[in-house]
């Protein structure tokens, strides 16, 4: 049986073995998928050992996504722009790297909206790894405007400047801090890519950033109604979503990349979802 795994530190919380096992059952693929905790200074050695034992591919999670990109010798454009990889595929001496987080986000937002992102105003809160990975797929979806706001405004500016330097997002992509939000107007899609919901922190958002008929999306999953989603609901936002769909959609992209068959994501999202109450 072909072997796959997710590598991170810590890894006990990972839903990836469950998701990929459900995909394998649904598509009739013969594979095993396990979780491996690598020592903080031992990512490359852990991947080497897994490859030597016949491993065909891995997902990579915190804190190794940047290191995974450096480990590979064949890096996709998407992973290069994100500066990080969340999936590796092994073929003899060749190691390909991909980043499916952003494409998973775009697929899930589109499913939640029931319409494409094209032509809409999108706000991304946060300028860490998750925000960086989301920007290129979001830009490719054709928003009218894509604004990145972060607690540390300089990090948002640096992130956006790095995209402009690559010739990406000019005239569409802009950045600022929380203090700039009252002047930006309303956004039909507001994405929380900060880790504030992990510690149940609220963000200092003016109610005016939320368009009432829009979507508020928290990348965190399994936490129910986070402070961010509560703020959005109180501002009258009609559609709320957490990041479970993004997680399952990126997994489906990796599965299809490895196996050549794309699993149906809806039943798996339904199994993993918790109520947003
Ligand atoms: P990083 O550590 O790289 O970045 C954290 C970001 O959150 C920074 O912009 C930081 O701002 C901001 N932040 C942290 N705490 C607060 C706070 N209390 N108030 C305001 N801003 C805050 O994390 P990642 O980008 O890797 O992850 C972000 C979130 O996305 C995590 O919750 C993670 O679980 C989720 N995620 C979900 C995925 C999914 O599949 N659903 C995939 C990947 C990530 P500053 O720069 O000012 O410090």
From TrEMBL:
Q: Where is the Shikimate dehydrogenase substrate binding N-terminal domain?
A: 6-87
| Keyword flag Hydrolase | no
GO biological process terms, semicolon-separated: amino acid biosynthetic process; aromatic amino acid family biosynthetic process; chorismate biosynthetic process; shikimate metabolic process
Indicate which residues the UniProt annotation says bind NADP(+): 77, 126-130, 219, 243
Lineage top rank: taxon: Bacteria
Pfam families per UniProt: SDH_C, Shikimate_DH, Shikimate_dh_N
Enzymatic class: oxidoreductase
Provide the alphabetized UniProt keywords.
Amino-acid biosynthesis, Aromatic amino acid biosynthesis, NADP, Oxidoreductase
Name its pathway. Metabolic intermediate biosynthesis; chorismate biosynthesis; chorismate from D-erythrose 4-phosphate and phosphoenolpyruvate: step 4/7
Q: Which residues form the active site?
A: 65 (proton acceptor)
Q: Which residues does the record give as shikimate binding sites?
A: 14-16, 61, 86, 101, 221, 250
Cite the CDD domains for this sequence.
NAD_bind_Shikimate_DH
Q: Give every SDH C-terminal domain span.
A: 243-272
Reactions catalysed according to its record: shikimate + NADP(+) = 3-dehydroshikimate + NADPH + H(+)
> Listed GO molecular functions?
NADP binding; shikimate 3-dehydrogenase (NADP+) activity
Its Enzyme Commission number(s) read: 1.1.1.25
Q: Where is the Quinate/shikimate 5-dehydrogenase/glutamyl-tRNA reductase domain?
A: 116-165
Q: Name one GO cellular component term.
A: cytosol
Per the entry, what this protein does is:
Involved in the biosynthesis of the chorismate, which leads to the biosynthesis of aromatic amino acids. Catalyzes the reversible NADPH linked reduction of 3-dehydroshikimate (DHSA) to yield shikimate (SA).
Self-association state and partner proteins as the record states: Homodimer.
Q: Which family does it belong to?
A: Belongs to the shikimate dehydrogenase family.
Under NCBIfam families, the record lists: aroE, PRK00258.1-2
Task: Spell out the protein name for this chain.
Answer: Shikimate dehydrogenase (NADP(+))
Q: Which organism is it from?
A: Tepidimonas fonticaldi
UniProt lists the gene as aroE
């Amino acid at each position: 049986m072909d072997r796959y795994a997710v590598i991170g530190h810590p890894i006990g919380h990972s839903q990836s073995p469950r998701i990929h096992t459900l995909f394998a059952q649904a598509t009739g693929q013969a594979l095993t998928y396990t979780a491996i905790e690598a020592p903080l200074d031992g990512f490359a050695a852990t991947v080497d050992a897994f490859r030597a034992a016949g491993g065909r591919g891995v997902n990579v999670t915190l804190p190794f996504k940047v290191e995974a990109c450096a480990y590979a010798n064949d890096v996709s454009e998407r992973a290069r722009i994100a500066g990080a990889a969340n999936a590796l595929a092994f073929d003899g001496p060749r190691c390909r790297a991909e980043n499916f987080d952003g494409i998973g986000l775009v697929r899930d937002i589109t499913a939640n909206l029931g319409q494409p992102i094209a032509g809409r105003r999108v706000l991304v809160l946060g300028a860490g790894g998750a925000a960086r990975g989301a920007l290129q797929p979001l830009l490719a979806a054709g928003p009218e405007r894509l604004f990145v706001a972060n607690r540390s405004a300089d990090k948002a500016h640096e992130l956006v400047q790095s995209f402009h330097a690559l010739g990406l997002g000019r005239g569409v992509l802009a950045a600022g801090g929380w203090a700039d939000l009252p002047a930006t107007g309303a956004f039909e899609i507001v994405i929380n890519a900060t880790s504030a919901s992990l510690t149940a922190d609220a963000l200092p958002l003016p109610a005016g950033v939320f368009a009432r008929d829009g979507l508020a999306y928290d990348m965190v999953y399994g936490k129910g109604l986070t402070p961010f989603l509560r703020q959005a609901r109180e501002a009258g936002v009609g559609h709320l979503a957490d990041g479970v769909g993004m997680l399952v959609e990126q997994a489906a992209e990796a599965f299809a990349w490895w196996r050549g068959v794309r699993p149906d994501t809806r039943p798996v999202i339904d199994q993993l979802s918790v109520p947003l109450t």
